[in-house]
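Hi R.,

Here's the input for the S-adenosylmethionine complex you asked about:
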Amino acid sequence: MTTSPDATGRVREHFRRKAFSFDHLYDEEHALQRLLRPGLFNRRELALSVALDHDRPSVLDVGGGSGRIGELILEQGASRYVDVDLSDTMLDLARERLARFDEKVELVQGDFLTTPVDGPFDVVLALGYFDYIEDAAAHLRRMRELCGGSAVASFPRWTWTKGPIRKLRYEVINNCPIFDYTEDGLRALLADAGFAGAELHTGKSGFLAVARATT
Ligand SMILES: C[S@@+](CC[C@H](N)C(=O)[O-])C[C@H]1O[C@@H](n2cnc3c(N)ncnc32)[C@H](O)[C@@H]1O
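And here is the predicted structure with S-adenosylmethionine in place:
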């Protein structure tokens, strides 16, 4: 399968329009927001703890958006943080947020699959990313090529409580394609990409995968 330029264009446009409202979700980090969106905060905490297993890691954040996770990781001593994202407005927010970390930060606008990135990295993240990716196999292979240590990625799964509303909200109202994963399908995708033995954590709305690159 290949990603159609039209699908990528629709995702880019969606995150150009929604950058501020997505970024703002992190500001409402009170008990209610945590209850409503446990996935957002759980995946950020897992990514941070995996990054902390490495000493001054170099980190690639695939679809890193407004740099919310990058900020925490840089505060904890990362030596390099690269955010590759389709959306210029998301990257504008990241630029402002991460300005104090100077030359440790690289913000690159483009489609991760086709944008040149100078790796490898100790940690590769893709959080809230695979929701929008038509050809997950190709994106996982590219992540594996650039990963010299650990990878953390989130993948949504279909549930009858949230699935129909999510489809309506994204695909019908916002014209943005979204995708779901099954546990068996995801294990096969990870293994085919070279992430054998990945740990999968299953939550209410999806999976969190932690993989170690072995040579
Ligand atoms: C839901 S946001 C998540 C942002 C960040 N990872 C976080 O968890 O806070 C998804 C991001 O993926 C980006 N994205 C989607 N498809 C992409 C692609 N093919 N290449 C690069 N970025 C992409 C979007 O522009 C958006 O900023």
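One thing worth noting: Helices lie at 5-24, 31-36, 38-52, 68-75, 88-98, 136-146, 163-173, 183-193.

Cheers,
M.
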